[in-house]
Design brief:
alpha/beta; 410 residues; four-stranded parallel β-sheet; 14 helices; 16 strands; seven-stranded parallel β-sheet
């Protein structure tokens, strides 16, 4: 399967952008037309999962979500391909002309868990960036992924392209091991999912890995914060979708603003958010927050990606102490500060190292579509090659094209 994917990548290198865009537009239309087939397969998957599990929301597909997926595919089709773009060029004294040009990776493997929409996102972005997508989904979404990959292959074939431009591997672990050992056939692997999955891939892959790390996200409510802004931002970041990597996990609050904590937390009670509070914040919330939703924090309450209606609170005496706490527990995904003092905000952005640092905005915005990139393939938390939301440009490499006229090196 991987050898055929590598062969297909050479075919794709010769395809023009018009064929790629037409194929994506066809895929968007046929995805809407085949929505019932996708939903029927998805029901088989979600029937095996407890609806109370926060991952259930990630796994579930309905007509609204499929319509949104089709819209994302069309967005990608309408974007400019970065492949072939000249990044720089210069003329040397010896007459050589040197161009640095964007090129496809070739074959991109993506290992992911219970998010069947990722199958569409990954294929669309890889295909637009002229690379083959090798998909290794989890068993939770096996039926959904099989139908989705089948639809994509039908569209590829109808447009005269090799169906192997998308390759869905079996959902068992042995295929993941094969993928991670496929040196020479696969150019890069991108894991998407829990920290345990990402760590497993990073520690075991012989193929280069771009990490899309877990999202342990903090928001610091500064001494100079606006209460109304802060309450809305914190509520949105925590409760918009708890099962995604940009959801808030820890509220860090200045000790001089503890009097505002009950008001900040009030909307969270309506969503039954469990709060793990340190001593100072527990005292501030006691009697003002539902007793059954308020617990005393332990060391395990920090540095945890909850992916659930749960959140920790940490009290600090200064902005520097807030930055120290974030630095200790961050996954370098998304961090935020709420303050009306822009000098303090600027200091915070210098002290906190993360792919995305927000000033007076929800961490829920860490998303390729929200950044104007179309669909995304993941949020990179590392510093090599790509960082933050990864879309078309991040799915390319580059090469140097050197043109001469008979020069030889002395």
């Amino acid at each position: 399967m991987l050898e055929k994917a590598r062969e297909a990548s050479r075919h794709l290198a010769l395809a023009d952008n018009g064929v790629i865009d037409r194929t994506l537009s066809d895929l968007a239309s046929i995805t809407l037309h085949r929505a019932d087939d996708i939903i029927a397969a998805n029901r088989l998957d979600i029937a095996r999962m407890d609806p109370a599990n926060p991952m259930y929301d990630r796994l579930m597909l309905d007509k609204d979500r499929i319509a949104s997926i089709a819209g994302d595919i069309r967005n990608v089709a309408g974007m400019r391909s970065p492949v072939g773009e000249t990044l720089s060029e210069k003329s040397m004294q010896n007459g050589l002309e040197i161009k640095k040009v964007r090129v496809p990776f070739g074959v991109i493997g993506v290992i992911y868990e219970a998010r069947p929409n990722v199958s569409f996102d990954v294929f669309s972005l890889c295909f637009k960036a002229a690379s083959v997508a090798v998909l290794k989904g989890g068993s939770d979404a096996e039926n959904s992924n099989r139908v989705i990959a089948g639809i994509i292959r039908e569209v590829l074939t109808a447009n005269g392209l090799p169906p192997e431009l998308v390759t869905l591997l079996p959902s068992d672990r042995s295929s993941a091991a094969e993928l991670m050992s496929a040196v020479g056939l696969v150019d890069v692997i991108i894991p998407r999912g829990s920290s345990s999955l990402i760590n497993y891939v990073r520690e075991n892959s012989r193929v280069p890995v771009i990490e899309t790390g877990a999202g342990i996200c903090h928001t610091y409510f500064d001494v100079a914060a606006d209460l109304e802004k802060g309450r809305a931002i914190i509520f949105n970041a925590k409760t918009r979708r708890v099962s995604v990597c940009n959801a808030l996990d820890c509220l860090v609050i200045h000790k001089d603003r503890l009097g505002d904590l009950p008001e900040i937390a009030k909307p969270l009670a309506g969503k039954n958010v469990v709060i793990y509070a340190d001593h100072e914040s527990y005292s501030a919330l006691s009697g003002h927050y539902p007793e059954d939703l308020l617990e005393k924090a332990t060391e395990e309450s920090y540095g945890t990606e909850f992916l659930d209606y749960k959140m920790s609170v940490r009290t600090v005496a200064s902005l520097e102490e807030a930055a120290d706490h974030v630095t200790r527990y961050t996954s370098m995904h998304s961090e935020a500060i709420i303050t009306e003092d822009m000098e303090r905000a600027a200091l915070y952005t210098r002290l906190v190292d993360a792919a995305c640092v927000y000033i007076n905005a929800s961490t829920a915005f860490t998303d390729g579509a929200q950044f104007g990139m179309g669909a995304e393939i993941g949020i990179s938390t590392q510093k090599l090659h790509a960082r933050g939301p990864m879309a078309l440009e991040e799915l390319t490499s580059y090469k140097y094209i050197v043109t001469g006229n008979g020069q030889t090196r002395p």
